[in-house]
Amino acid sequence: MPPFAALAHHRAPRAASKPMRRVVHGVTLHDDYAWLRAKNWQAVIEDPGKVPVDIARYLRSENRYAAAGFRPMKALQKQLIAEMRGRMVEDESAPPWRDGPFLYYERYRKGAQYTLCCRKPAKGAREQIMLDGPKEARGLDYFDIGAVAVSPDHRLMAWAADITGSESYVIRVRELGTGIDHDRLERTSGDIVWGRDGRFFYYIELDASQRPYRVMRHRLGEPQEADAEIYREADSGWFVGLDRTQDDRYAFIDIHDHETTEVLLLDLDDPREVPVPVFPREAGIEYEIDHHEGRLIIRTNHADKNGRKPEDYRILALPVGETDTEKAEVLVDEVPGRAIQSVNVLKNWLIWSTLGEDGPAIHARNWRDGTEKLFRPRAVIGDISGAIGPEYDSAIVRLTFSSPAEPEVTLDHNLDTGEEVILKRQEVPSGHDAAGYTVERAFAPTPDGETVPITILRLASTPLDGTAPCLLYGYGAYGYAMDADFETDRLSLVDRGFIYAIAHIRGGMEKGFRWYREGKREKKINSFRDFLAAADFLVQKGHVAPRRLVAHGVSAGGMLMGGIANMAGDRFAGIVAEVPFVDSLNTILDPNLPLTPPEWVEWGNPIEDVKAFEAMRAYSPYDNIAAKEYPPMFIVGGLTDPRVTYWEPAKFVAKLRATMTGGGPILFRTNMSAGHDGASGRYRQLDDVARVYAFALEVTGTVPALESKGQEFARGSQRRASENRSGP
Hints:
Strand order of the largest sheet: 30-31-33-32-34-35-37-39
Distance between the termini: 49 Å
Shape: globular
Radius of gyration: 26 Å
Structural class: alpha+beta
Number of strands: 39
């Protein structure tokens, strides 16, 4: 029986074709579904209820069709949700951080969707709930807490919340003694930095296109209209961020695109301070800063004394106010192929993280005697992450270790003494035996001589005889590396005999900055080819059955999915593309859209550059749909998404249905009350995951063979969860 056989009795929606033509660089672009972009799209992102009637009607018809396709798998989805929920701790809590007289932390009530933001005295046990997420979210379809920033005297808390998924946050100020909110600042990015006297704070305001564009200073008790503009970025191609140095000496404004940075310092003691650039803005120069004893500590790719630009970054030290990098002390030199990803400062320790082909690492160096420490994942193929708390005069670095098979272990390492205190071992209430799983790293050769790392997770008992189904995940953009970490959701596939694989394709940073550079702009096609090379390798080596391979990507990874569907869709049993950047060319040709100007350095500027136009036109998924068979596809959008606007997947699906000659089905679901990150709430998010996994099980023919085993697994998960809850 073919996948989604129940849809034989349902007619797939067909969007009206309203031809539109335009000529760009002498090329005629055809766009028959441009009408799906609402003329009032800015208002729709802010308020989904304002979507035009004809567009809403089409999106809902697609939702009904997708629901009909998934209806026969309703029991399976419930089973998957039960399994995934059985692996979650109902009253999960995070280890606290000390900040002055208090310990601050987040936790969940049993069964609650959203967190509680809490504190208690460092020398006492009485808890105060500062922000009750479930209470604040009551009656809302969407709720996301942004920044939660406590004032220097610990009496007030500025907090930000997004209630539409549009990433437009409302900031309020709460008296922690009474729980009463004052002030209300709208259309903000959610970033907050308090002045040292606790009478004002800085925040970032969004423009009409949802871009963070200016830094404002708010004095407590005054209306938003009275707030002072501290900095305005006139170039729409730049993002604006806001942070503070670890020692609380400075606030800083971070202005950047994907390859250039400018940082401006603000004195937190002086509300009249005018922001001062650390370095003049210079194309292609990126840096981030912290402050230590009168010097700025700078992670940067500024050229060295020989004029060589360190592609994988260095760490420098310069006195505040000095702009000549030739006078800088080189604290950490470049190691080609191992990118320096971040730098942090404590009073007695310099801490930085790196990433290369042999995995991530965290480094620490004592400022006084130069003693160094190196931390790596504890598994051969695994992950490590690090964090420091809000206090500057501290020797604690918090480390978290995991692997695709091994749950997280979080500990505090005292850099001065070497003492380690385990704070938390990730619990899997339904039970988990890491020894029952195998994690491998393979390398797929590409036609141009590169090798693509692939992380593979499977049951130790899953045979590598060419019969296993597989979900292959890929992203490959913005220099973002995919971690080899532990995700409990994946086990619902792996425990059913699936191989779960991650293709670390070009466009990420897994092999240093070069790996990123080789997968962007005119070389973006390498990301697509790398993913296909990884897919072919898994089949050729007998890891995966031909035609039982499912591809999965999100956002820029969703564009990847559209691209491989056009290039080689016949190699896949199914493709899942969530919030996919599939109308790439039309979006990057429109400077009025939220992210278009900042994205030109990532993808190229096809408005001004003919070569960039030709390169994007060659791979843009919407523009390369062909009259041929396509595999079953599940495509997801978000109505209030400001990053990948809802009409991108809608247009892609409409054109795909009108053009393809067979195959499918194409299932398209728009979340009508959420944005780029999907549903809010930790349990509602499981619904989204369950649909993806049910799709993968269906198109690989795995459901009938393993359904009874899966039901027994679910019952066992619930039983073990109950036993654990009743234990000590």
